Every structure is written in C-alpha cells, then in structure tokens.
Amino acid sequence: MSPTPRLDSAGMWEAACAWPEGLTEAYGAARRVFGSAGVAAADEPIQAVVAFGLGTGGAACDATAALTAGQLAVPFVTCHDSLVPTFVGPDCLVVVVACGDSPETVAAARQSEARGARVIGIGNDLELARLVAGAGIPWCEVGAEGARGRAGFGPATVSLLGALSAAGLLPDWSAEVSAAAGFVARRRDAFVAEKGNAAELARRIGRTIPLVYGSSGLAAVAARWWKSCVNLNAKSPAFAAELPGLTYDELAGWGQGGDITRQTMTLVFLRHDREPSAVPALFESVRAATEEVMADVLDVWADSRHDLGRLFELALLGELVSLEMAAREGVDPGPVPAVEEAHFAQR
Questions:
Q1: pLDDT tier at 344 (50, 70, 90 boundaries)?
Q2: Cα(321)–Cα(4) distance, integer angstroms
Q3: Which three-class secondary structure string do you get for the chain?
Q4: Within a 10 A sphere around the Cβ of 2, how many other Cβ atoms?
Q5: What's the pTM?
Q6: Which of 45, 144, 197, 220 is the most buried (most CB within 10 A)?
C-alpha cells in the first residue's frame, strides 16, 4: 500500500497493516479460551492481577493498565522482568504475555505457578506455550511466529482485555473492540495512502532521532511503542517520555547543547482530546522550552472519540512511521541481530 520501495524480508509492513482486522477475533478467542477454562471459578476471589511481559507483550500489559485504570476493583500490576512480587499467591491472577521469545516471562510463569497463583498465558512464545501446556495452564495463542509476532500489539492487548472480562473483572468489551477495529482500519488506509501521514512524518523526521512525548496513560503507552518500533524496525535511536513527569526533570536538560540537538533530534507530541485539563498548557510550555533546540516539533493528534481507538490509532501510526523510516534508508525491519545476540548471551 505504501509507494516507497522497501526491503522487508519478514513481511513486517503487511503484518502491521493487517492487525486492525484481527482485533475482534483475538478478543473473542480470549473470552472463549479463558471462559471455558474457568478462570473466574475459584473458592478464593481474585485480589490482584499481575501481568508479565516484555517487548510487544510488555506494551500490551501497559496498554491494558492504562485502559482499565479506574475500572478494575482490584490492583493491576505490570512487571517487565522475571521478578515475581512477594504478594503473588493463590488469590492472584497472573497473566503472562509473550509475543516472541521471552525467557524472563517464562521464568515468571514458572515461579507464579509454584506459588499457587492462577496463571494464564497469551502470545506466541514456543517455550512458554510448551510450559503452559505441560502444566495445564490456559493458553491463548496470539500473533505469528518470528519477527511478524512483534506486530501483535493490538491483538495482544485485546486478548488481555478479554482475559480480564472472562475472569469477571471487566464487563464485555466486544462492542468497544469492534468499533475500534473498524475505526483503526479506516485510519490505517489514510495513513498508508500516497502522501499519507506515515510517509510524511517519516520524511520530516528523516535521519534525526525522534523524541516522543505523550501524556500519562494511553498516550504515554503509545509514545513508548513509537520508540520501540523505531528501534526495532528502523534500527535507529529513539526516546520516549511522558507528561507531566518529564516537566519535573527532563525538560531542564534542554537548556544546553542546542547547537547539537537542533541538528539531530525531532520532538513528536502525541495528543488527544481527553487529556487531563492541565496537560495542554504543559505541552505548550514544553514547546516553548524546546522548539529552538529541536530540528522540528511535530504534533500528532488522535481522531477517535474512544480510548481504545485513540490508543490503537496512535500506536499503529508510530509502527507505520518506523517502517517508512526503514524503507527510506533501505533497512530491512524484520531481522534484529543485536537483540537476538543479547538474548543468546543470557543462555
């Protein structure tokens, strides 16, 4: 769909463009798998949910935390390593989410099961799938194997929402997921059209380093997803931070080095119309403090009127921008040898 010629041995462009159509099916599959497994049925009610994940799985955990804030009657804790909190036990629901090889998540699943927690799994990590199958842990497969599995952010997120619904901790989000799927598919078509947002933003970022800012909650999750996608797909540095937190420290760091940063860095603001009331003024303060020391300052607004659509719209655009950045430089987005070598060194 993009006019830019691209080197893409793993089919990352197609995988990114396809995931909006998979949202409804992924959500329904999770509800069926975890509902039939009786996740909610236990003598002891669930007192906390602990979600483990790194990479795409970790992003799905963070997204679920942002989307369900204020809706869950129990704490929702996200963990991005193998360290299991001391409170995890029989009254906890542990969700392990692994879209790709994730030894830390496998280790967390083993420890949690040993403590008697109710453990469920989501993803495509083969080692984790074998572990949960052997232990009788409910498992919902999401995404393709290999590099394409990285593009499973949306389906992994709705699968986690489906798991919480099946556990009786959330109402049925079927209508919200269906609406978001249709909306994001339409936005994708606009993003990838000739002279669409994805190609234009990639052109404006060029060879500079994107610094992506979003307000706390769903925009901050999307900002971190932009960073991850640029790192993995474009093989380029990128950074992310959230408001209001960055105004207490990072903002002061732009007082020096402007002669360097204005040649090397582009600031991207991820915005939406449900930001807390103080946030728009904070964005303007950040702009005033940084526009003289950045190559460019780009505003990216979500059009959706609903949180799930806002999150997925911003996240998908970042993914497509990173793929356009890769195409502009002749970079193959699929292989990530540096990541694979780092994981191999752990074994």
A1: low
A2: 12
A3: CCCCCCCCCCCHHHHHHHHHHHHHHHHHHHHHHHHHCCCCCCCCCCCEEEEEECHHHHHHHHHHHHHHCCCCCCCEEEECCCCCCCCCCCCEEEEEEECCCCHHHHHHHHHHHHCCCEEEEEECCHHHHHHHHHHCCCEEECCCCHHHHHHCHHHHHHHHHHHHHHCCCCCCCHHHHHHHHHHHHHHHHHHHCCCCHHHHHHHHHCCCEEEEEEECCHHHHHHHHHHHHHHHHCCCCCEEEEECHHHHCHHHHHHCCHHHHHHHEEEEEEECCCCCCCHHHHHHHHHHHHCCCCCEEEEEECCCCCHHHHHHHHHHHHHHHHHHHHHHCCCCCCCCHHHHHHHHHHC
A4: 19
A5: 0.95
A6: 220
4 pLDDT tier (thresholds 50, 70, 90):
low
pLDDT, tens digit, 9 for 90 and up, residues 253-300 = 998 888 999 999 999 999 999 999 999 999 999 999 999 999 999 999
The C-alpha atoms of residue 261 and residue 265 are separated, in whole angstroms, by: 5
What is the per-residue pLDDT across 53-68, written as a single tens digit (0 to 9) for each? 999 999 999 999 999 9
Of 299, 29, 18, 3, nearest to 158 (Cα)? 29
